[in-house]
Specification:
heterodimer; A: about 80 residues; alpha+beta; B: about 300 residues; four-stranded antiparallel sheet; 10 helices
């Protein structure tokens, strides 16, 4: 875990206020523009987004390496497959 | 008098068993076509459209509540031609009346991310083996791939719903809490370190935790079918009873067979299996039918 703390994302996307499934589609498009192994930081709302988006990212084959709860939002670090 | 000439040409009851349903209009019938699980090829759809255009005297089809395509307004004199033309693409006519009906199913686990069990294959298999068997009354089966239960197995005489048993391994867990977020039943709560505390009594075996887990700490231990019996809709709806959980996939045919046999032995004419269970007792059904499957 300590090693992952140091990871700085290559790109960021703030999806607060963005509804499902648009938030996932935006994440997917962002990841498509990145290189394999790069890290994307995604900010998601609590509720439906945090329930659905991580699962869809996993189904696409990417790796979620960190999940952090900050008040009413979630910060995800995703490693592109 | 004209009415009489139609009934003399064919046995109306015989027609009904073959999926030809009498309409208000003289000599016109609705022809119900078999679409097990609601999945149909474009080739069959095109042929049905062609036949409907040619033979429907009312100019439309209807999609039945149980996933069948019905050609409305077919004249009694056209039955042979309709059957023959549909047969060129392997399209068969369904049934109605007191017998095992065409099973329904949800879209299927090949493309639906929630899917746990393969409902489409199972619906086809069960249809192949049991379709048309005479019973005391109608006997409807349905297959849902997951606990969202789109096929409404609680309304089926015999319903099968996919379930998955989740197991957690401590070593793989990084305490991300996504499983607790994913669980809509409150069956998983995160402790201080973010690790899941599992309350099986609340679990519906949907597998959302498994799909959400980024590290594969949650895995499926086993998959199978939750079995419900005695459901029906109509004038007096009855919610099916859950009679067994995690029936293995390869035991479904045996379970259908045992249930239909029990129903034929105990059901009175015009009595659905749910009413029969109410009259005789669920315990009796469980002892006679379910008992043999519990050891598996």
């Amino acid at each position: 875990m300590a090693e992952e703390e140091k990871i700085s994302p290559d790109d960021k996307i703030d999806l607060r206020g963005v509804l499902c499934p648009i938030n996932f589609v935006k994440t997917k498009l962002k990841l498509e523009m990145m290189d394999s192994g790069q890290i994307l930081e995604v900010i998601l709302d609590d509720g439906e987004p945090i329930r659905s988006v991580p699962r869809s990212i996993k189904e696409e084959g990417h790796k979620i390496i960190k999940v952090e709860n900050v008040e009413n939002m979630y910060r995800l670090l995703i490693k592109k497959s | 008098m004209a009415e009489k000439s139609a009934t003399q040409r064919v046995d109306l009851n015989e027609l009904k068993s073959g999926g030809f349903i009498k309409q208000n209009q003289k000599d016109l019938f609705t022809v119900r076509l078999k679409v097990p699980g609601g999945r149909i090829t474009p080739e069959k759809m095109l042929k049905i459209a062609e036949v409907a255009k040619k033979y429907s005297r009312m100019g439309y089809c209807h999609l039945s509540f149980r996933q069948s395509v019905e050609i409305v307004g077919v004249h009694i004199d056209d039955f042979d031609a309709v059957i023959k033309e549909l047969a060129t693409v392997g399209q068969k006519v369904a049934s109605c009346g007191p017998r095992v009906r065409v099973p329904t199913a949800c879209g299927g686990c090949e493309y639906n991310p929630n899917g746990i069990m393969d409902t489409q294959s199972k619906a086809l298999e069960v249809d192949e083996k049991f379709f048309g068997i005479p019973c005391p009354h109608k006997f409807k089966m349905g297959f849902s791939g997951c606990p969202i239960d789109c096929t409404r197995t609680r309304e089926m005489d015999l319903g099968f719903q996919g379930v998955v048993y989740p197991v957690w391994s401590k070593d793989l867990c990084n305490g991300c809490t996504l499983c607790a977020k994913a669980c809509q039943e409150g069956a998983i709560i995160s402790d201080k370190e973010g690790r899941p505390v599992f309350d099986e009594s609340k679990c519906v075996y949907c597998g959302d935790c498994i799909r959400a887990c980024p590290t594969d700490a949650w895995k499926d231990k086993k998959k199978g079918w939750l079995v419900r019996t005695g459901g029906k809709h109509g004038r007096h709806p009855r919610e099916a009873d859950e009679v067994l959980n995690f029936l293995p996939d390869n035991k479904v045919n045996d379970f259908v067979d045992a249930t239909v046999k029990w129903y034929k032995e105990h059901g009175k004419p015009k009595e659905r299996i749910g009413s029969c269970i109410d009259r005789i007792g669920l315990e009796k059904f469980k002892k006679d039918v379910v008992g043999a499957f519990i050891k598996n």
